[in-house]
Amino acid sequence: MKFDARRALHESEERFRALATATSDVIYRMNPDWTEMRHLEGREFIVNTLAPEKHWMERYIHPDDREDVKAAIAASIRDKKLFELEHRVVRVDGTLGWTHSRAVPMISPEGDILEWIGMASDVTARRQAQETLLTQRRLYEAILTNTPDLAYVWGRDHRFLYANEGLLKMWGRTWDEAIGKNCLELGYEPWHAEMHDREIDQVAATKLPVRGQVPFNGTFGPRMYDYVLVPVFGENGDVVAIAGTTRDVTDLKQLESSLREADRRKDEFLATLAHELRNPLAPIRNAVHFMKLHKLPDEELNGAREIIDRQVQHMVRLVEDLLDVSRITLGQVTLRSDRLTLRRALEDALDAIAPAALAAGHELDVKLPPPEIEIAGDATRISQIFQNLLDNAIKYTPQGGQIVLRAERVEGHVRVSVRDSGIGIPAERQARIFDLFTRVHPNEGIKTSGLGIGLSLARQLVELHGGRIEVASEGADRGSEFTVYLPAAPPRDAVEPAPAPKAPMDGGTRRVLVVDDNRDAADSLAMILEMSGTEVAVAYDGAQALVLLEEEEPDVVLMDIGMPGMDGYEVARRIRSTPGGDRFHLVALTGWGQADDKERALATGFDEHITKPVDPAVLAELLASNGRRASP
Quick one: pLDDT at residue 138? Predict the structure, then answer.
């Protein structure tokens, strides 16, 4: 019996050695309570133990994993069952590795644990791959969770395999509520769900992406979405899933719509501008032709002149309104801070629109405020606000209508309303009525003019003065009412002294040099000046201007800027650089009227800057104050 036992033990040990030799895994033996490692075949993974090792835990097991290993050992000893754990170990080269360890107890006939036989696999590469995959998954999940786009994956059966956080929020569902369901089960309308089902099948069949746009009413409300679906390939090249991303393009679509509308309004504006500029040119041309063909008596000649003057003023106002809009948009408007009566501002506006109101046969119902109501602001711009509102009422009210003007003080503000009996404003147009180039298209039988900038300009000027403007209309053919609120001026602390009257201008003669490459402009301006008793010399380019400057010794030089060759800036610089050049009063007379144009003119030597076409009255005042020399 002893021989048989020894033989059995020998055979068992031989089988163990054979197993240890045949396997690529680490083989180990432990005493019953794991306090001693009896044998270890390390396989170049961990250091071999040729003799019993009591400190194997400290030698092989990573410090952070020792408590877990001890707990698993204790449970296995208690239950006399399999030990199994994945943990970190110190490898032969001193680096950290991972092992999957399994050990079974060898039980005696009496039920006692004799020893433990274990096998440990080197799973370092697998764990590193898992860590890499986990890191990548966290990275992708972070990207997909925080992207504004919606990301998702469908299976070939049309059911969702993945949906990012944004998509779950749009559905109003949790992951468990959404994954595994198809579009119809998630609340998509039947046509929408069927469309995506067809697209999934198309991508799977063609292996090509599909792109589209679709409206969807989710928890974010009705929105427009742009999406792309792409195939996900398996190892054999078959399509195993369909991935997609969807982007909310609602704002982009609205922007595109706004740009199309702006482009349409631009085209309409340009057509209207051409029409508005042609309108005054026709009577001007007719009046000039009439003056050429006939020797007219003074009365008819004056009538023709009035036509020309009236139409020129109309063209000037069109251009000035356009420039005002540009200046305000660019922040280049400087407002005066005058103290003026509201009554005077309204009277100026009424005087300006009176001829148009009379021609249209409108009844003006006006109630002016008392003289003591004052406002602070730019007198010209304040009057321009009310003139634009009254002009708008005249244009959009059929012949023989009524226009009502009311003004009063309300607490710390003045309130001015202009109400008409005109064509009214549809409710859907009222929110945009103050937009640039917006015009309400009238009914048949009423003809309007204008560029659609008057109301926009009025609103911007009101806001620059710290006020607001409102519109009200009950709809088509029900008239309109525009109400302006402006801050009222504080009460006067004392009566301001009246300005001293200007001293009368001395008599004398003037000598002016006109410089302009536009011969008609130069000659016509010279004629106006000569009719007022001014001595005038004319130059049609910069070089000629420098010659005449020495010959004529003018008091004032009225010079265009944009001349070919030597422009007005260069002429001014040359004049100022010559001895005695500072004695001439240089006036830039130009079509360039922005604030930086004026600054540049003054910086290059001009004394003043006037925008064409110049008002003869302004020109006369300029010459009177700067160009009068003593009579001989």
Answer: 83
Neighbours of 101 (CB within 10 A): 21
pTM: 0.42
Q: Which residues of 598-614 are buried (b: 16+ CB within 10 A; e: fewer)?
A: bebbeebbbbbbbbbbe
User: Residue 272 — φ and ψ, nearest 5°?
Assistant: -65, -40
HSE at residue 593, side-chain half, CA atoms within 13 A, is 18
Residue 474 pLDDT: 87
Q: Which two tokens stand for residue 447?
A: 């003809």
- 58, 69 Cβ separation under 8 angstroms: no
Helix and strand tally (H, E) in the chain? 18, 22
* DSSP state for residue 220 in the 8-state scheme: T
Residue 135 has pLDDT above 80, yes or no: yes
Alpha-carbon distance 226 to 485, whole Å?
Answer: 45
pLDDT recorded at residue 285: 65
Domains of the chain, start order: 2-128 (3.30.450.20), 147-248 (3.30.450.20), 254-329 (1.10.287.130), 338-487 (3.30.565.10), 510-626 (3.40.50.2300)
Q: How confident is the model at residue 208 (pLDDT cuts 50, 70, 90)?
A: very high
Residue (of 159, 200, 196, 162) closest to 180 by Cα position: 159
* Among 49-58, 161-170, 265-274, the least confident range: 265-274
Question: What does the block give as tokens for 178?
Answer: 């959404």
pLDDT in tens, 57-82: 988 899 999 999 999 999 999 999 99
Kindly state the tokens that stand for 458: 């009025």
Alpha helices in 568-615 (DSSP H): 568-577, 595-603
Tokens for 71, please give them: 């707990």
Q: How far apart are CA 571 and CA 147, in angstroms?
A: 61
| Range 334-362 average pLDDT | 87
What is the mean pLDDT of the segment spanning 35-52?
75
Residue 6 CB burial class (10 angstroms; 0-12, 13-18, ≥19) = exposed
Mean pLDDT, the chain, integer: 82
Maximum average pLDDT range among 48-52, 200-204, 235-239: 200-204
For the CA atoms of 32, 36, 41, 42, what is the dihedral angle to 10 degrees? 120
> What is the mean predicted confidence (pLDDT) over 147-154?
90
φ, ψ at 493 (rounded to 5°): -80, -30
| Residue in the structure block whose two tokens are 């180990």 | 28
- CB of 180 closer than 8 Å to CB of 188: no
CA distance 242 to 200: 7
- Residue by residue, DSSP assigns 484-542 as EEEEBPPPPSSPPPPPPPPPPPPP-BEEEEEE-S-HHHHHHHHHHHHHTTEEEEEESSH
One-letter amino acid at 394 equals I
Q: Which helix (H) or strand (E) holds 610?
A: strand 608-611
Say if residues 304 and 291 touch (Cβ distance below 8 Å).
yes
